[in-house]
Design goal:
The complex is a heterodimer of chains A (317) and B (283).
Chain A: H1 3-11, H2 15-58, H3 77-84, H4 86-117, H5 124-136, H6 139-150, H7 157-163, H8 182-205, H9 209-217, H10 222-250, H11 254-259, H12 271-280, H13 285-316
Helix pairs in contact in A: 1-2, 2-13, 4-8, 4-10, 5-8, 6-8, 8-10, 12-13
Chain B: H1 2-40, H2 62-69, H3 73-104, H4 110-120, H5 129-136, H6 145-169, H7 173-181, H8 186-197, H9 199-215, H10 218-223, H11 232-242, H12 247-282
Classes of the chains: A mainly alpha (317), B mainly alpha (283).
Chain lengths: 317, 283
Amino acid sequence: MVGSPVTLLADAGKRPVARRGVLSRKWSGILEPYLYVSPAIILIVAVMLMPLVLGLSYAFRDIRILNPFSGGFIGLAHFQTLMQDSAFFQALLNTAWWTFGSLLFQFSLGLILALLLNRHFVGRRLVQALVFLPWAVPTFLSGLNWAWLFNPVVGPLPHWFTALGIMDSPFNILSDPDLAMWGPIVANIWFGIPFFAITLLAALQSIPSDLYEAAAIDGATTRQQFFSITLPFLAPTIAITLMLRTIWIANFADLIVVMTNGGPADSTQIVASYIFTQAFRRLDFGYASAIAAVLLVLLLAYALSVIALRRAMSHSS
Amino acid sequence: MVLSGRSRLGTTVYWATHYLMIAAFVAFALFPLFWLLKVSVTPNDILYTEGVRMWPSRITWDNYAFVLTKSSFPHFFLNSVIVSGSTAFITTIIAAMTGYAFSRFAFRGKVVIIALMLITQMFPLVMLIAPIFRILAPLGLTDSLTGLIIVYTAFNVPFATFLMQSFFDGIPRDLEEAAMIDGNTRFEAFRKIILPLTLPGVAATLGFVFTAAWSELLFALMLVSSESASTFPVGLLSFVSKFSVDFGQMMAAGVLALVPACLFFLLIQRYLVQGLTAGAVKG
């Protein structure tokens, strides 16, 4: 691709030209990687970074699509409104609940699944394909699917809960403000276990097996092997995936938008779905962007404190 | 004797527990999908009376026939295939170029570019909904499949790049250097030597991006307003809010939405663990 004009120059035959050929070959060698990288850079800058900066500027402007006279600079007015917005603070609490509730079960079940799949057994490959399937299910469909399972008209879950004595009579937990959050959380656990299982399984398979053989020769029990070999090897993967997943789940509004739309009575509204509601239903881009800016700062603070914590821990040990 | 007997019993108990837990995971993973399938083939008149039965006493394909012939779902399906297919194709080409550059070249600004790509993975994409709408609207790219393809491609390029890079990193440099010494240009070496070796990686990336684009809902909801440009998720959701009583038809549509994503996934899931293992070994 890059080589052909260089060869043309060299083919011209005369020495100075050939030397220029060497020079341009050197130049094209320097430029070559940028040529490969440029489409990605252009796309990311145009579709992600520019809108990000633009969005941050919206936070200080009055931008409502339905109001043609909006667009002016209004300073910190959105943030003042936000401080009085009880729905926002409810959404913050809900975000914490949603994130840690989902993460705890996704991670612990994902780890168990990875450990189970790390042993050789009959039918392992089939099992692996089947248990990873929920990850491939489009999220909107997972949301709808679980909403239907919780619906007493077509779903079995309320009837099973009643039979088990957990419920007095079959009802839809998605319409009960106290329980509704469990609906999206269960759907999220279902959808998210494979992610942890895949990454942890990959990490497990990269542990050299002679370590276990040596430990077994030294008389280490399975439990000892787990705590002195497996866990230390997994620790970096666990730390990084937990951090990334926390941020990812906190931002993951699809299941909530599909299953409850934030209701009933905002009981399942998380910050990300609140932003979407403001932008999509009320078309108030300014206020939506102000909430988004606050969310960005909070997530950044979270990421930095986790990194600081890890650094402090690795220094002390 | 006693000891070995006990440990044999222990092994049996271990494997029994092992298989039992595996069975529980498989059941948890498959049951919702099974239920989707079950309701989609249940005739309307026995839907409520046989609500909790594991399989209806008789089945029907009417729901599928309706969805395939009398609804807009085939059109939504086609839109989604176009959007997801184009996104997967373009993203994989761009990611292969970028991942190759990351894997094979040391160049000024590389660290900055990688950091930039990592940052895009951290911030909430929902932040971009409003500004992207405002940027695309005057360009005529809202309510258009092209607009969706551009947005999805940009969103998926960073992750796909890291994925492709890990596949390229697994291929020894000597191979293409030998080919270049033999007089091939770098591009020829790439096409003849590297590309065939990284085909599993290409397949994994294609499948990954296709599935991601197929699932995307929020931007599609925001950017698309007409039925003619609706993707499958948007179509299904508007169907649910309009005719939310017809569970059989909705679930039949849901099963259809599941098909391409699952096919892709079954094709690539083996390479996925391999690729991630390669990445994990690299550090």
